[in-house]
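Exercise: predict the structure of this protein bound to magnesium ion.
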Amino acid sequence: MPKSAPAKKSAAKAKTEVTAAKTKSSSKAKAGSVRAKPKIPAKTVAKPMKRKAAPVQPKRTRSPQPTAAPNHDQLWTTVDRYLVDMLVPQDAALTASLDDSDQAGLPAISVAPNQGKFLHLLAKISGARRILEIGTLGGYSAIWLARALPPGGKLVTLEIDPRHADVATKNLARAGLADLATVILGRAVESLADLVEAGAEPFDFVFIDADKASIPEYFALTLKLIRAGGVIVVDNVVRRGLVADAASTDANVLGVRRLNEIIAAEPRVTATSVQTVGSKGHDGFTLILVNA
Ligand code: SAH
Ligand code: DHB
Ligand code: MG
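Solution:
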């Protein structure tokens, strides 16, 4: 393990580690504010006893406003911190992969730690020996996925941006996954078509997480590359609720909405979609089983 690189990161930023260290105190502090909400209805209940509490009314109007998105984001992030602190210990290779991604200027759009572990568990549960990822970024989700593989397994991950691919390749190597993981540079649609053409051995598990406008194409090509009984997970399928806007002209939203139409009419798959909230805001995963 290159000592200089992680040392530099933890000195320069130590962001993730500090976050982990701080989590206890900050989650305690914020746990207080989490509790503050349940207290509001309690006061309301107590109110009938004090009739002259008329001036308190504004509080009443404030509490039933569940549309205050910033507060929700804070709460979700606080809860995510607690959950990650409890259940998702992250080792140096994972935290360093995010630090290096930051330092290289990559966008902070990796899956959250608890989501990464969720993907890891899904891949394990499905018994995946060959995993395909579409959209590598700095390799954070790739590390989680590759760690679900048995010895001799394979992760292939597709990335269009050479800077991202370079950071990811180094991050995977530092995690000791160089032999298990291969980053393929290029437009994912082309890389997928190449894999089809090359007669690639079928994949057991596919994580679709690149540009959202192309999701329908990624799904179509994935069906050619995955085995019967295989599992597909699609990220970012809710986008703060925008997916439910039938009038949307956003290319990302249209990509997800088209996928849903395709899935709904596709007898070869069984699928569901769940919303998620957390440090990444309000979003969702679609889980698709390719019927055996
Ligand atoms: N799976 C990563 C996050 C991926 S972000 C993680 O959770 O850690 C989306 C990535 O898809 C970005 O790195 C972006 O460069 C890449 N991407 C966007 N369009 C692409 C395309 N047409 N082909 C391949 N990769 C693409
Ligand atoms: C974006 C992409 C992602 O894969 C993600 O998880 C969050 C955001 C984006 O392109 O904005
Ligand atoms: Mg994503």
